[in-house]
Write a structure and sequence with these properties.
heterodimer; A: 5-stranded antiparallel β-sheet; B: 116 residues; mainly beta; 4-stranded antiparallel β-sheet; 11 strands; globular
Chain lengths: 111, 116
């Protein structure tokens, strides 16, 4: 079945450093979503990418969808302590509604 | 407006008991999902409803797990004869539509189930 690999599992950064998490699939994706989950909280939707090669920005966050629609990345510029949490990518199985989440990348930011 | 709500927030039960977890989605949301999330892991899909129709239950681990959404709004996830391995956070999410291709999911706070 559909699977997504997300790396790294953890990332420790100093406040002000950049951060990137990657999501990879063995199959072509129709779209990909990114969610953020704060410690003790629930996943919160960040963005959905649909088009090949798409790049979207939200303030310090930059999201990319690969040309082959098999991978995606989330890049945070100049991290802040408010960026702490776990970032998940999520994909849908082809032709269905089952949503598959990656294992997540947990971001730690040291002030 | 109100978000997705779930009850109870915490449930402690003894092995062998049945439990029912409730999800109240955002009003007007057509799609409803149930997930199970282990600590340090991503949400694991259990089942999906489009209105009252359960269109995908491929993620339900075994026949002790069932879900319903009889009127296309509130949903209940039932676990019969609970086992310790069922202990987890159970999350519900809703989205306005599952057919448009855009399905931003709004998650509830979850029910933390502990089976003793």
């Amino acid at each position: 079945g559909q699977q997504v690999m997300q790396i790294p599992q953890y990332q420790h950064v100093q406040e002000g450093e950049d951060f990137t998490t990657y999501c990879n699939s063995s199959t072509t994706l129709s779209n990909i979503q990114w969610y953020k989950q704060r410690p003790g909280g629930h996943p919160v939707f960040l963005i959905q990418l649909v088009k090949s090669g798409e790049v979207k920005k939200q303030k310090r966050l930059t999201f990319q969808f690969g040309e082959a629609k098999k991978n995606s990345s989330l890049h945070i510029t100049a991290t802040q302590t408010t960026d702490v949490g776990t970032y998940f990518c999520a994909v849908r199985n082809t032709g269905g509604f089952k949503t598959i989440f990656g294992a997540g990348t947990r971001l730690f930011v040291k002030a | 407006g109100a978000g997705v709500s779930q009850s109870p927030r915490y449930k402690v039960t003894k092995r062998g008991q049945d439990v029912a977890l409730r999800c109240d989605p955002i009003s007007g949301h057509v799609s409803l999902y149930w997930y199970r999330q282990a600590l340090g892991q991503g949400p694991e899909f259990l089942t999906y409803f489009n209105y009252e129709a359960q269109q995908d239950k491929s993620g339900l681990p075994n026949d002790r797990f069932s879900a319903e959404r009889p009127e296309g709004s509130i949903s209940t996830l039932t676990i019969q004869r609970t086992e310790q391995r069922d202990s987890a956070m159970y999350r519900c999410a809703s989205s306005i539509s599952g057919t448009s291709g855009y399905n931003e999911q709004f998650f509830g706070p979850g029910t933390r189930l502990t089976v003793l």
